[in-house]
Amino acid sequence: MNVIYVKDSKEMSEKAASLLFSRMKTTEGQLNLGLATGGTPQGTYEELIKKTRAANQSFAQVKTFNLDEYVGLSEENHQSYRYYMNTHFFNHIDIPIEQTFLPNGMALNLEEECARYEQLIIDNGGIDVQLLGIGSNGHIGFNEPGTPFSEETHLVKLAQETKEANARYFNDQSEVPSQAITMGIASIMRAKEIVLLISGENKADAFAKFMNGTLSEQFPASILETHENVTVIVDEAAANKM
Ligand code: GLP
């Protein structure tokens, strides 16, 4: 595992965007990016928009697969992850929107939607580079503590602490959906390369626990240490309990 220590979230975003940009430049043919939402990767998208524009680098050969989506929020809903991705990233680059995928949290049959999404990723050749954030309880995607490492894309009930942490994006905590569809740990681990971003003092306990290296389903991110190609980019605030 390659751990890169940086000063702040700006430097983390620059490093992450540089890595993604270099994969885009060196990949011949299609590149499949696994993408994440939340506050942490926002700066990475901004930097990648700037870099690709400056270099005239097209996203025509890129397909994107997001980790997760809330159940019951349409793409017009400002709190849906589809809305986040469109406004923070897709609307600013030349990617055809039909090459961008998220689980459909409005599907009538959610179990079928999970299976469809998993198969969609496989049929497209799998994910080349997966960008990840981490929840303060160690969740990745929406894989909460206790999720079996063997799970593929599935329906989850959000942990109370995740609902509280994500409430800042909603008018009121009661509006935070209680369910989501998420790629599973097994789906995430099939990515050829993983880039984990950790920023801010509210992630310091999670980073310290991550680095202590105990493999446990009670701390979902711990599985990443068993992946052969992981880069962790962590800023000073998140690393200060080491
Ligand atoms: C959400 C997302 C995760 C994300 C986490 C941390 O629960 N499903 O993918 O990593 O929040 O978000 P933030 O970066 O805003 O702290």
TrEMBL record:
Molecular function terms from GO: glucosamine-6-phosphate deaminase activity
Protein name: Glucosamine-6-phosphate deaminase
Sequence ranges assigned to domain Glucosamine/galactosamine-6-phosphate isomerase in this UniProt record: 8-230
Pathway involvement of the protein, from the record: Amino-sugar metabolism; N-acetylneuraminate degradation; D-fructose 6-phosphate from N-acetylneuraminate: step 5/5
Coiled coil region boundaries: none
PROSITE patterns, per the entry: GLC_GALNAC_ISOMERASE (PS01161)
Enzyme kind, highest EC tier: hydrolase
EC number annotated for this UniProt entry: 3.5.99.6
